[in-house]
Structures are given as structure tokens and as C-alpha cells.
Design goal:
homodimer; alpha/beta; ten-stranded antiparallel β-sheet; nine-stranded mixed β-sheet; 22 helices; 25 strands
């Protein structure tokens, strides 16, 4: 029996003599609710009493329902609620539907036009609702509907009074949803568009004819059913469609450069475009979030201003996902030909990880104007006269996960005068969840813009180190592909020097050259393979100098020298013998020499406190206990890696083979048959049925290793258990 | 002189005896406005008259300003406006700021608490505003501020009366913004958070102390300045920050399967998750858009239902951009080694285009459940038992542009019973702007799921055609890369069969195999090169059958036969001689034999009606006329390609060399020195200064060919002219 019914419930519908209200009353009456059919009762000519409510009551009764008519005005709402209590002994549902119109252009609107509309719509709803509120609180149950209008939400010519009242109801509903929460009183707002003059001119006639209240009534009925537990929603419905509306807020902007500056009309103007930029607008669910958000933004602003006080900074965001990592890895020559590279190329690999040099990219914020701004008067820098000279990266924390978002600060720490050219030393600080996780430093040559009398060297610059004089301890050779630069460009650096033959020629190259960072990616991979067990998390820092260009298709020879935990390296071209990457080094946490596989470290025991999916595994455990035979028939051991920001933060074992148990961590005995890696959020979506496991898998959001077929066996189980 | 001033303006500020209102009055007074300082005038104890307004007036006067006090209640708003007219002869600015609080939990709220709050906030603003409205209309100038609160926007415990009144003001402002539009009356709403009990408990004390009205007043002052032309905004400000809030609406959902179905409470429930899904929520600017949106959705719904009535369909969206095209082209073997391929690999190439086979991808909607759903009882299909058998694509319109969005319909037209296996014939219809532009058809083998007594053949299936028996007219050979599948996966098909050695082995392959569509991409490119001048727009249709798997690294040999405008082809493996793509053909619009470059067709004369950027070029023309010497100093001819959806729809020539002219179309004589390709929207952003040309260029949004240096010369000119 799938029908939603209202047996035992008493519903009050105001303005139910006709139209929408009548449709609500009839529908609720047909589904078992006892209905108070309220209607104002004055006929249209203002003389005598209409019998509209009586007719609706009769129609409900004719269909076997129970209803009573009420002719009180909503501004005496307490009388309407009394009708319910007197006749049925309770009240559970209140639909504030009564309404009238007094449309006038604003100048012509009389005070009476204003007052009457406020009284019927806003005060009426206040009165009826307040009259029912005590009962609702006592019985810990209530369902309330407010009726608003698109004229309220968006404004409408000639309806100043009406749009004010209708938006007022939205405000009232918001507060009542909050006050009613702990008493199971749900307050929602409907925006019903029925056939009206408003729509008559715009809609095709057949559509206008079709705007029947019957198409809206089921929406309202659903929203007052006991199974409906949302509150504070604004739902628009007409013609068998429904949409939800809510407010979102821009990220906004500070209105001054630093906290000690005054806010002026001019500083407001200068920051306005950012204030009204709705690009990353967010939903605020509760008023308290406004304050929390404000405190965070103020702290950020103050911290940034402190930093900016030292060096003028540019702040940006950098987002990446597993596809970006794979694309980058191919761009720097990782290959399936080398089995230990598969973990950089296959997002479902059990050790899937970023290459360490990938994290140089967030610091290359292309929109950053810091170099241009740092130039002295008369000198300039733009992409036509700059060259990447040196690169440094240092990991201050673990290697970041396989997807995530960084906040990046870019600033010039020193501008050096090298005679004919200038060199900007650009630092990037890369934050994740407010923690500084990576530092990078670029030396940017600005050709022909030296000679301004600046310092020649900088204490802040991280220096290269000459490689040892002995012959190298290890050498790796790899050919770049003809399309290496075309491929590396997909990682974001679209400078045409790397693809456009004309631009390359104009810059004095026989053909487009490979990105310096692409060559460095090769070299770093070579060091990683020879001395770090090809394990990206082994890298602490890297420093490199770009000495000469590489043409795609040329062969790179990386020469390496091990000194303690530092691997010095340089890279030569096989074709010319030229050193293209010079005086470079990589610092490692652990040296793992060539051939030795990376120590199969257990990953740092994940210890996330509570995750959303915890409840899911508790339910699965209950399900297994309730139905052990069904569980045992699966006959396999599953390991779930639950991730946040692309990092496993918790593991769950589902042993449906022998132990029939669900517990945190890896399998206590033996090995998982199937390992699934999925984010906490995605797992909840899969369990809720809003994300199909198959889609999740094919889109790389659910990663499965081991026996895939067994994962399929689990799918239905997981889902049905989750719905217990 | 950059200061914004209010000389000659008369401002009325209600509730200006202290707090925010006082700050507004002082600031406006200090910037030249004549100010009516309204304050209710009863002291806090209700006895006697306060002199707060007098004190504020004195403070304004002491600083050399002009002001007058007014002690009327806002519910007699006409008297306050009269004060302005009597004293200063006009009124330009009205800031509705007066307010009080009567916080009570809803049950305890007295009718007086309710009425008083409505009267002061809502009715007061109505009264003052209406009193000023006639003057504003007559003089065609007015600036109005309503004051709302986060308690109104988000609800707040104990403020049912206040949140209703405050949200009512938002509704009033929306309608007045509309009614005032043609009279230059701007109506905006401020959400000022000053220090209050609300914030006292939550904020750090020093932050609470810092919540000064002075930090908010400049925001309000900016919003009532004559230079401020937005209307209907809701702006939140405190502590030197500001944000904008507005409503957005979900895409919503139909509440039934087809128009002839009834809407029931249950059908509402079943569609609810889509109704409230805010993922692609959109801003509605005007109430009329609600109706337009509705009409469109209804038409879509009806059309889809008609189609679904024939075959149950799955509808999806597919978005792509130039990066996707380049990634795909590399995935199917396009290479910079072949100069005529550069146009598939370089987004700024003057002939940048998609490969035709790229447009097979939208039909491969991975989330589509149509094949699984089409299986007869007892049979199933999922990614573990399906194989791509055949592929067809047909272009019904021009080749789509280099970025865009499609709406895609997927449905199974026939399910064939081939004995041991089933074959689902899946059609995809690909729409752009409601026009059907591409059809594709896949034959999907469902292994081991035949034998259900279905038909063996389908009239709807597009058949392959055997290749001619003679030896091929042309042959092209190309080796795939070892990492070809790893690279092709970036185009979206993440099936592990193509990367995971274990999965490949389990499926009986020695190692991961190449995607059939990747091999087909190679073959289609070969035909394109040999017979279509490597011009993707030359392709009408393509049909192919996948006969055997290819391993990455193997060499493909495409054999071709020309018959009229049809090129028959098959593809063999060099290593084994096996035919991997069989009985295939490509239909061309024009046959262009090997070696002959694609006829340098003029592109179909773009003929977009009006674009946003039209006004920009008009302004540039004015600028050139106003300052011909400056223009001539540039000394170059520029061609702008203005795009919509990645297609050039209009061209503009800026001749700053000899003719000094701006006109539509290509240069009338000679060739452009620099060609810039940019979307209409991006060009407007560049001109407005919100997008830096350099960033646009480096992100591939502004494409430049020819002399890049000359483009830089133009940048500042374009910008300054646009600001004229």
C-alpha cells in the first residue's frame, strides 16, 4: 500500500471555497484527513453569505470524507482553529491560502489598498498560525504551509503591497521553521502559479487553460504529510512542474586594503565588482553561519594583510582531481611500459598518487600579476619577455591527496638586477585547509629589463648546488615524444612557444620547445625511480635550474649522484650533449636504491574522527546480524578506503566470508578480495541511491581494485542495508 | 578629483538620531548633501522629546554641512518628506532606516508586538517612500534604501514579527525597483550588521567592538550616489566587508512521467529529489523569466514525452571545450609531426577545429541506463558483459564549434537476439540550441545474454558495407603509442580494461587493450587526410565495425577505397594482419585527394544579428575619429573573430594602418597583421577590465594568430576606447 494518507489528521485550509484552497481541501479529504474548509463567506458583491465552503464540504462528504465549513476571517484566525478543535478535537495541518489582490501602481496605491493586503495575507497567516502553534507544540506535531508568489520573490509591476506581504510570509516561515524544529513543526512555503491575468497574456492559450489547481494540490499535500520532514523550503509549482528557490550569498569582498584603512565611499566603489560577483555564491542555511563566515573572512583578511604588509601578494585558488594527475604524469613521460608508473596513470590503482612535481603547478598561477607589478618604473614584464630560470618545491607536510583544492599566495620576495636582465624571485605558499603544506620558488628572468640598480643577489633565494665532480652514480635515459609539449600543455601552460612554429621561430628556436617544467618532470621521475622506490611521498624538496631548451622528441639523460639523503642531478641532451637542467637536487625522506621496491609501508593509520559513512557501516552491521545467511552467501572480504580530499582517512573491512563482521581497519586475517576507494560523500550518495555505483565507477569516483565481480555482488546488499 | 559628492542633493534619513542612521546622515552631510535628520523624538523612557536629531544636525553644521531635524513618525512618512521639500525644495535620496525590536518567541508574541513591528518597519517605509515617489518620478531621479536583516533573510529565533517585516521590505524593494526603472529611481536594500545582542555572544569581543556604523555608512552612501545605477540589490555589510545576496531557482522537475498522467502525492514524492536539487540552480532576474522558463520546460517535457512514447529515452547534457578537443586529438594519434594536424592540437590555430569522431563521445553517456533497462526478464547488461560492436555518426548540420553544450537523447531502438549474445542498437540524438545536429548509433554486444527469442535483425540498424574486392586505392600506416590507451582514457572512457593488467588478463587479453573508438579515431583521421583535405567539416557520416582488439603500441594500417563521395575503409594490424576495423565507410561532402590542401574556403559568411560587442566596436570607431593620430600610430590591421559557442559568428576589421576604419568582415584589402578570436562575452569582459587580456590569452580564451606583439599594442587602446 504505497498511498500516502492522512488518517487521523485534521487539516485547516483557509480560502478553501474555490480555486487552489478547494483543491487542497478535496485532496486531503479524499486521503483521510478531516478538513476545516475556511472561506471568508461574503459573496463577491459583498452582500449576504456565500455558500462556497458548504459546497466544498458537501463534495468532500459525497466522496466519503469528513469536513466542516468555517466562515471566519483569517484576521480572526483563532476562531478558525477553534472550529477545528471544537469539531475534531485536534489540528495537525494548517494551509494558509486565503488571499486577495489590490493591484495599483505605487503612486496610486491607497493606504487602504496597502493595509488590506497586509491584513489578509500577512497578519491573517500570523493569526491562524499563532492560534494553532500551542497545539502543535504540545502534540509535537504540525505541518504549516505559507503561500507566497513570484511577485513577492521577484517583484512585479503594480503589486507593491502584494509583493511586500508575500515576501513577508517567506520571512515569517523562515523564523517559524527554526522555532518549530524541536517540536516537529514543519513550515514550508508554496509558490503556486494558477491561471491568472498575470499569465494570461504571456502563455499560449492551451497552457493557460491547463493551469489547474489539481496539478498543484498534490505538491502541497506532500509537503504537509507526516513523511515530509524538510522545513523552511520555498517550492514553486504549476502545470505539473515544481522547483525550489533559495537565497545564495556572494563571496563578497573587503572594502579596504588593510584593517587599519578607513572604509570610504570610494574604497567601496573600487571593490564593488567583487562584492557583487556571484560566481562562487554560497547557500547560507542558518543565520549563525553568517557570523561564522564573517569571522573566518575577517581572520583571513587580517592574516593576508599581515603577509601582504611584508610583500604585496596575489591570492588564488587551485583545484585538481585525479584526471589532472594522470594528464600531468603522461605529460612528463610516465608510461605503462614501466609497471611501477601505473600508479601515476590509473586512478583506481591501489597506490594511485600524484607525481611530486605536479605540485609545482599551483604556484604557477597564470593570472598572478606579481612579477609585472614588482618591476621598477620604466621596466615591464609580461609573457613575451619572461623565462623560467629556476624552480624549487618543498613539502612541509605529507604529499597532498589525489584531489583537492589549495589556496595559493604568490609574491615577489626580491627583484634582482643581473645587468641586461632582471630576475624576479617569486615565492608561492600553498595552503590546504589553512595549513601551509607546500612552498615553491621560481626564478623568473625578465629579459632586457635589468640595469635599474637593484641588488644582484638575494638572501631569500634558494640556491642551486653544483653536482659532484665524480662520474654519476646512476644514469637514466628517456626519449621525449614528438607530441610531448602538445600533451604537457593540457596541464595548463598554454604558452604558444611550445606549440606554434611561428612563435617559436620568432623566439629563435627551430621549432616549438618543450616546457622547462616538462623536462624537469622527466628528470624528477628518473630520480624517483632510481633512489626513492618510485614513491612520490618520499620527496621532501627539489631544486632545479633550467639551462637550455629541449625540443620535443629529443632524449633526456639524467645523471644522478647520491650524497646522504640528497640526490644531486643534472640532465643532458643525448643529441647534443648540452646540459639542459643543471646543478639540481632532490632531498628524500628515505633513500631506496634502484630495483628495490618501495617498502610496502602500511599507510599512516587513518584516524578520522566521525565520518558521515560511519552510520552506514553500523547499519550494514545490523543488516548482517539480522540476516546472516544472506550475508554469508556473498562469501568475500571487502576493504573500503574512505577518503576526504583524495586521501584515505578511514578504512572499513566487511568480512562476509568467515567472520561475518564489520570493523574499522584492514582485514584482521588474510587479504581483502576487493578494495573499494570512495569519498565519504560519494559513498553516502551511492547508499542513498542518488549516485549509481556503476556511474561512480566509470567516472572514477568509486575506485575498485581486486575482484571487480565481487564488488557487484556487494552493490545491492550495500544499498538495501542502507535503506533499512 | 576622485571623491564622490552629493552636492545639490537632498537626503532624508529616518531613525538618524543615532547608530547607523546617524552615520549615514553625517557622511552624506560631509559630502555635500542637504540632510533631513529624522528621529522619532520620544526618549527611551517614552517621556518628553529627545534631542538626538538636533545633536546630529548640529554635528553636520559644525562640519560645514547643511541639515535639518525632523521628529515625525515614519508611519506619517508624508510629514518627513514635507520637511525636506519645505526646507530644501527637493528630495533625492531616501534612506529607510528607522526600526525597533519586539523579540518574543512566537507563542508569547502579542498582537501588539506584531503590529508595532509591521507598522514601524514595513508600513513606515511604505509611507515615506510613497510620499517621495511623486517627486522622484517628476524629476526622474531618486535613490531609495530599504533596510533588512539577516533575521529576515534566514529567519531567527524569537523574531517572527521582525523577520516578516524585514523580508516584506525586500519584496517591496523588488517591485519598486521595477516600477522606478524608467524614472531613474533606484531601490536597493542594505543588510547592516552592527553590534547587537545577536552578535555579542558569537563574536570575539574585539570584533564585536569593531562593528562600527562608520564601516557600513560608505556602502549605503555609495548605493545612493548618482553613479550607482543598479537596482533591486540586497547588500550585506559589516566590519568593512560586503556581500550580495539573491535568490536562485533549481532546474526543478516534472511531477509525472507524461503530460497525460495525473499528478499525485506519490508522483510528487517520487520526483522530489530532483525538484530540490540545487546543483544547476539559476538566477531569475525578472518575473517574466519565470514564465518563459516554464513554457520552455513544458515544451521540452512534451517533446521528450512524445519521443519517449516511441522509445524510453535517457536525456543527458554534454559539455566540451577546446582542451577536450586537443586531448581527444592526441588520444587518436593527431601529431605535431604532421603540420596539417596542428589545427586539431592548438586552440589558437586559425583553423582550430574538432576531429569529426570527437562527436561520437556525447552519445556515449556513461550514466545512461538504457541498455540495462532494455534487457528482457532474466537477462542483464552492465559494463562487465558489454562490448562495443559498431558505431555510426552523421552530421545533420555544420560541424559543431570548438566549445559548446549538447543535450543528448539516448534510447534503444531494437534489441536483437544473436543466439548466445544480445545486441542493443542504441541511438543518440545530439541537440544544440534545440536543433538536432548529430545522430549516432552504437551496436552494443551483450555477451551471453541472447536466446530470449527476439528478432535477429533490425530495420533501424544502419548497416556496414563490405569494402570493394579490388586492392585499396590508398593506404596509411601509423603506429599507436604504448600509452595510447592511457591517454585516450582522459577523453572519458575509464573502463579499466584499457589500463588495468589484471582486468585485461581476466578478460582474456595479454595486456590492456586500446579502446575501439581510439583505433577508429586513427582510421578516420587517415581517411580525412587522404580524401578530405584533413578538413573535419568535410565529413557527412561514418560507419564502422569493431572486429578485433588492438594492443597499444601496435601499428594500424588503414586501407581505403574511393567510390563517388564514399570512402570505404578497413584497418589491419601490421603485426598480425588481422582486420580490426571492418566493412567501414566515411561519406564526404567534397573529395579532396591526398596532397591537395583543403580548398581555402572562405568560412560561411558569419551573419549573427546583434552581439554585445557591436557597441564596443562602435565606440572604438568613435575613439579613432576623435583621435586619429593616436590610432594611426598603431600602424597595423587587426581582424577580430567574435564567437558564440566556439563558432565565429561575426568578424570585425580594425584598420589602423592606412584606412583608419572599423568595419564588419575581413580586411577589404591585404591581410590582417594579427587575428584575434574571442567570444562575445569574453571580449566584453576584457573591455570592461574584469578579464585581463593576458590571462584570457594564457587560458586559451583569447586566441591570437599572426603578430602577437601587435596585439599588445592594441590592448590599451581597446580598453581605453571602451571606457570612453
Amino acid at each position: 500500500m504505497d498511498q500516502l494518507n492522512f488518517a487521523g489528521r485534521v487539516a485547516v485550509v483557509t480560502g478553501a471555497g474555490g480555486g487552489l484552497g478547494k483543491a487542497y481541501a478535496l485532496l486531503l479529504g479524499s486521503r483521510g484527513a478531516k478538513v476545516v474548509v475556511n472561506d471568508l463567506g461574503s459573496a463577491r458583491d459583498g452582500v449576504g453569505k456565500s455558500k462556497f465552503a458548504d459546497l466544498v464540504v458537501q463534495e468532500i462528504k459525497d466522496k466519503g470524507g469528513i469536513a466542516v465549513a468555517d466562515y471566519n476571517s483569517v484576521v480572526e484566525g483563532e476562531k478558525i482553529i477553534k472550529t477545528a478543535l471544537d469539531n475534531f478535537g485536534r489540528v495537525d495541518i494548517l494551509i494558509n491560502n486565503a488571499g486577495i489582490l489590490r493591484d495599483k501602481s505605487f503612486q496610486k496605491m491607497s493606504e487602504q489598498d496597502w493595509d488590506l493586503i497586509q491584513a489578509v495575507h500577512l497578519k491573517g497567516a500570523y493569526k491562524t498560525t499563532q492560534a494553532a502553534w500551542e497545539t502543535f507544540k504540545k502534540q509535537k506535531y504540525g505541518r504549516i504551509i505559507m503561500t507566497t508568489s513570484n511577485a513577492g520573490l521577484f517583484g512585479n509591476f503594480g503589486q507593491a503591497n502584494y509583493s511586500a506581504a508575500k515576501m513577508g510570509l517567506v520571512g515569517l516561515a523562515s523564523t517559524l521553521a527554526i522555532e518549530g524544529a524541536k517540536y516537529n513543526i514543519k513550515v514550508n512555503t508554496i509558490v503556486p502559479t494558477a491561471a491568472s491575468r498575470l499569465t494570461e497574456d504571456i502563455l499560449p492559450p492551451e497552457m493557460f487553460q491547463a493551469m489547474k489547481p489539481d496539478l498543484i494540490a498534490p505538491v502541497v499535500a506532500y509537503m504537509v504529510h507526516e513523511s515530509f520532514t524538510d522545513s523552511g523550503l520555498i517550492i514553486d509549482s504549476t502545470l505539473g512542474f515544481a522547483t525550489k528557490t533559495h537565497l545564495v550569498r556572494s563571496q563578497g569582498a573587503p572594502l579596504r586594503k588593510k584593517p587599519s584603512d578607513p572604509v570610504t565611499i570610494e574604497s567601496v566603489r573600487d571593490n564593488w565588482s567583487q562584492v557583487v560577483n556571484m560566481e562562487n555564491a554560497q547557500r547560507i542555511e542558518k543565520i549563525a553561519e553568517v557570523t561564522v563566515d564573517l569571522v573566518e573572512k575577517l581572520q583571513d583578511f587580517e592574516e593576508r594583510c599581515k603577509l601582504d604588509g611584508q610583500n604585496e601578494s596575489y591570492w588564488g585558488k587551485y583545484k585538481y582531481n585525479s584526471k589532472d594527475l594522470v594528464c600531468y604524469a603522461l605529460g612528463v613521460g610516465a608510461s605503462v611500459v614501466n609497471p611501477s608508473d601505473l600508479k601515476f596513470l590509473y586512478e583506481s590503482h591501489e597506490s594511485f598518487s600524484a607525481l611530486p612535481t605536479f605540485f609545482i603547478l599551483p604556484g604557477m598561477l597564470m593570472e598572478s600579476p606579481v612579477v609585472g607589478k614588482a618591476m621598477p618604473p620604466g621596466k615591464y614584464a609580461d609573457f613575451t619577455n619572461i623565462l623560467h630560470g629556476e624552480q624549487y618545491i618543498e613539502f612541509l607536510s605529507d604529499l597532498p591527496g589525489t584531489e583537492g583544492e589549495f589556496t595559493v599566495r604568490n609574491y615577489v620576495v626580491d627583484l634582482l638586477d643581473k645587468g641586461s636582465s632582471a630576475v624576479a624571485v617569486v615565492n608561492s605558499e600553498i595552503y590546504q585547509n589553512k595549513e601551509l603544506v607546500i612552498r615553491t620558488q621560481q626564478h623568473i628572468f625578465v629579459l632586457g629589463q635589468g640595469g635599474f640598480g637593484g641588488p644582484r643577489n638575494s638572501k631569500q633565494a634558494i640556491a642551486v648546488e653544483a653536482v659532484p665532480k665524480r662520474s654519476p652514480d646512476a644514469v637514466l635515459e628517456q626519449r621525449t615524444a614528438e607530441d610531448q609539449a602538445a600533451l604537457y600543455r593540457l596541464s595548463g601552460d598554454l604558452n604558444p612557444l611550445h606549440i606554434d612554429p611561428n612563435v617559436a621561430t620568432a623566439s629563435g628556436h627551430p621549432r616549438p620547445i618543450l616546457h622547462g617544467l616538462a623536462s624537469l618532470g622527466f628528470s624528477a621521475r628518473h630520480v624517483l625511480m632510481k633512489y626513492a622506490g618510485n614513491d612520490a611521498s618520499n620527496v621532501k624538496a627539489l631544486k632545479a635550474r633550467f639551462a637550455k631548451p629541449v625540443l620535443p622528441g629529443q632524449t633526456l639523460i639524467t645523471e644522478m649522484w647520491l650524497e646522504g639523503k640528497r640526490v644531486h642531478f643534472q640532465t643532458k641532451l643525448k643529441e647534443t650533449g648540452n646540459i639542459v637542467i643543471a646543478s639540481s637536487y632532490m632531498d628524500l625522506k628515505n633513500v631506496i636504491k634502484d630495483g628495490a621496491p618501495a617498502s610496502n609501508q602500511k599507510m599512516a593509520a587513518p584516524s578520522a574522527s566521525s565520518l558521515k559513512s560511519d552510520s552506514l557501516f553500523a547499519k550494514i552491521e545490523d543488516g548482517i546480524k539480522a540476516n546472516p545467511d544472506k550475508a554469508k552467501s556473498v562469501g568475500a572480504v571487502y576493504l573500503y578506503n574512505i577518503t576526504l580530499n583524495g586521501k584515505t582517512v578511514k578504512q572499513w573491512t566487511l568480512d562476509l566470508k568467515s567472520a561475518l563482521a564489520v570493523y574499522q581497519g584492514e582485514p584482521k586475517s588474510g587479504k581483502a578480495d576487493t578494495t573499494m576507494t570512495v569519498s565519504d560523500d560519494d559513498l553516502m550518495e551511492i547508499a542513498a541511491g542518488t549516485l549509481s555505483p556503476q556511474v561512480a565507477y566509470l567516472k572514477g569516483r568509486l575506485k575498485i581494485s581486486g575482484n571487480i565481480m565481487l564488488a557487484q555482488k556487494l552493490g545491492p546488499l550495500l544499498k538495501s542495508e542502507a535503506k533499512l
